[in-house]
Amino acid sequence: xxxxxxxxxxxxxxxxxxxxxxxxxxxxxxxxxxxxxxxxxxxxxxxxxxxxxxxxxxxxxxxxxxxxxxxxxxxxxxxxxxxxxxxxxxxxxxxxxxxxxxxxxxxxxxxxxxxxxxxxxxxxxxxxxxxxxxxxxxxxxxxxxxxxxxxxxxxxxxxxxxxxxxxxxxxxxxxxxxxxxxxxxxxxxxxxxxxxxxxxxxxxxxxxxxxxxxxxxxxxxxxxxxxxxxxxxxxxxxxxxxxxxxxxxxxxxxxxxxxxxxxxxxxxxxxxxx
Length: 274
What we know:
Blueprint: H1 5-15, H2 37-44, H3 48-56, H4 64-73, H5 78-87, H6 104-112, E1 118-121, E2 127-130, H7 132-137, H8 147-153, H9 157-160, H10 164-181, H11 186-198, H12 200-207, E3 218-223, E4 227-237, E5 245-251, H13 258-266
């Protein structure tokens, strides 16, 4: 790193915020745009002189705790936060609580998929958002809330997932993978604990310590209205919301009827009721 890139980065992001943006009163004549150094320090809960030394390049080894506090004070998004850590010569610990709602642009993207099911999961397999066709796909379940719970505790699962054992193993492996990335995520621990207590099948698979992420294998569903469906999943990490995973199900190549049958099962008014 040449010059004082860290200080320049902090000053630039400080200059983008106004007191109103962060809930602070505005007082006195401001010689520069944005927040004052002491205001950022107060928001971050640190000594003003220490923060000034960071901007001036006189402090070179801020801790991860300090960087996280500054990141929150400056309202940095995921990429900007990661860049802050890199400028400071360290790596983000990655243990931020995943967001439990999708952004408006992502919801619009989901809704734009009018021919295939698309949905967003958090690391605990909670459904964060879904489009109309995803809701139609999972309609056999009493509640569409958590894919792991649905797989192991809802009676509809063993008929709905044609190869239930394979699907159940992939769900548990995905949860195990997520615990390695963020072992402190409380919601994930809650789901694992609950399923371990209520499902012997889950406990057996969890004890196997199988680990892998989302695959692109075809999953076969036996839908009560659309019949047999073979859908291939494509998964995408949501960069603006670390921990969220967008899943899109597509028919196998050459299968033109599966998605059409699901759309027909959706009915003409279902998408408008969302």
